């Protein structure tokens, strides 16, 4: 898409969005001046100077003329055909061009799709806007639109994205070779529907490893793919950097989800209403909004490229969310706060949904609870530790694997943390395989931030145990590894 000139960008819309000609009715496609088509009162001078509102539209369900009104707390939408649910942003938007364009885009999305939360709607809005500044970003966040079943609004959301993002490229049945040959210095926005058919089963996923590799490498700039081209078999590098939205049933591969802003869609409740999406009627309206977004954002490319916004998250999550937060900072108003809130909420949700990572963190926390319940002994045997873990009826360890958590399974869960059992001599002079408390100190400090790092050796060999957020049910009130009262057992479980 070519950048709009300042004159074109700043000019107010002079025509109405074209109506659809219905067979058997008079032709109404002749464009008329906007002033002749709307009887609305003129907006205030302050708002007129700051915002160019959208052309008038006709509500398809009620038949009354109106405007595509922003969904805000100040102006609740309750008419038939408008979405219900947590889609209203907080009050206080500044009357700036960027803030109002984002609010209008937010309303356009909410008009056709019921989003799972206000934070999810904010995230989608900012992601769409960020596609118009792809040359400015170091990372190209993916938008993973997933749901547990059919009819959750995934494909409808892609319809809206197609008409609002920069240069959409539908990848239905497209080969990886065709895709990376289509990515230029001004990259398109990749849209992949029914991604579960690409990555859903092991056999199918193996056939599409090249596609997954392209999506993974394209998350960061300067990660080209190399192919042999021409009769001379000359190695040639192709760009992969491009923002992408993928929709499908169930989670996508972990490597893609980790690079994505994840939107977990759900079916509409009986009271939630949206307008049906019709390309002939709705596409011109959305294209008008898309062009105005580009007109605002494209001149800010250099400024956006130099921004390093303060992020509420770290590491890869920060890389993924940085373009969205930067767009919010460019817009101003309440958008900077809402962008960071969406980042915190959606990132925290995904940390809980990563089952493998959650299980590894859970075992560390539960082992810490066992040590704490036993008075933080220096050693615990593998047998005692497993007995204590199985004693917690609310923990997953009884059902872990076909026979519950075993010594081998415990070793595998702790392997990535550099922790393993070894033959150890206990105070009763017996030798058994077990774990030393100091083995866990570093992992507890890094992955269980609720815990305090065990104190260094002092006059008291057994300092007070840190608070225990994970309760291990023993039925005795004592050490779950031995069943003895916590105040009267031998400190080394002899």
UniProtKB/TrEMBL annotation:
Residue span(s) of domain DUF3631: 264-447
Composition bias, Low complexity: 1-23
Ranges where the record places region Disordered: 1-67, 454-494
Protein name as annotated: DUF3631 domain-containing protein
Provenance organism: Actinacidiphila bryophytorum
């Amino acid at each position: 898409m070519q950048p709009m000139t300042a004159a074109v960008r700043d000019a107010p819309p002079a025509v109405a969005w074209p109506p659809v000609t219905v067979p058997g009715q008079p032709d109404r496609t002749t464009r008329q001046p906007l002033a002749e088509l709307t009887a609305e009162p003129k907006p205030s001078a302050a708002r007129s100077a700051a915002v160019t509102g959208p052309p008038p539209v006709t509500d398809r369900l009620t038949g009354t003329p109106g405007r595509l009104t922003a969904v805000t707390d100040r102006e609740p939408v309750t008419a038939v055909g408008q979405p219900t649910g947590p889609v209203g942003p907080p009050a206080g938007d500044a009357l700036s061009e960027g803030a109002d364009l984002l609010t209008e885009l937010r309303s356009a999305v909410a008009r056709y799709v019921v989003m799972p939360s206000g934070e999810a709607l904010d995230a989608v809005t900012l992601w769409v806007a960020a596609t118009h500044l792809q040359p400015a970003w170091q990372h190209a966040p993916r938008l993973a639109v997933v749901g547990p079943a059919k009819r959750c609004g995934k494909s409808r959301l892609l319809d809206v994205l197609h008409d609002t993002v920069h240069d959409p490229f539908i990848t239905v049945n497209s080969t990886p070779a065709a895709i990376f040959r289509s990515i230029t210095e001004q990259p398109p926005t990749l849209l992949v529907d029914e991604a579960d058919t690409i990555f859903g089963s092991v056999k199918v996923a193996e056939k599409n490893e090249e596609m997954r590799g392209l999506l993974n490498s394209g998350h960061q700039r300067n990660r080209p793919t190399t192919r042999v081209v021409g009769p001379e078999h000359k190695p040639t590098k192709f760009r992969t950097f491009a923002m992408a939205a993928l929709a499908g049933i169930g989670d996508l591969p972990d490597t893609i989800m980790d690079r994505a802003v994840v939107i977990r869609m759900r079916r509409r409740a009986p009271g939630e209403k949206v307008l049906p999406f019709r390309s002939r009627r709705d596409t011109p309206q959305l294209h008008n909004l898309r062009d105005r977004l580009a007109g605002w954002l494209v001149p800010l490319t250099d400024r956006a490229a130099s921004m390093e916004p303060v992020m509420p998250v770290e590491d890869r999550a920060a890389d993924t969310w940085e373009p969205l937060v930067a767009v919010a900072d460019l817009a101003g108003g309440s958008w900077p706060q809402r962008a960071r809130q969406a980042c915190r909420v959606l990132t925290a949700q995904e940390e809980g949904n990563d089952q493998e990572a959650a299980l590894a963190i859970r075992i560390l926390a539960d082992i810490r609870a066992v040590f704490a319940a036993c008075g933080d002994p220096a050693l615990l045997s593998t047998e005692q530790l497993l007995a204590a873990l199985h004693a917690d009826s609310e923990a997953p360890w009884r059902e872990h694997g076909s026979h519950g958590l075993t010594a081998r399974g415990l070793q595998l869960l702790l392997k990535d943390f550099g922790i393993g059992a070894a033959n150890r001599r206990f105070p009763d002079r017996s030798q058994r395989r077990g774990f030393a408390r100091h083995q866990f100190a570093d992992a507890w400090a890094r992955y269980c931030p609720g815990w305090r790092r065990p104190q260094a050796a002092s006059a008291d060999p057994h300092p007070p145990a840190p608070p225990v957020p994970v309760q291990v049910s023993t039925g005795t009130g004592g050490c779950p590894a031995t069943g003895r009262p916590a105040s009267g057992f031998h400190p080394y479980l002899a």
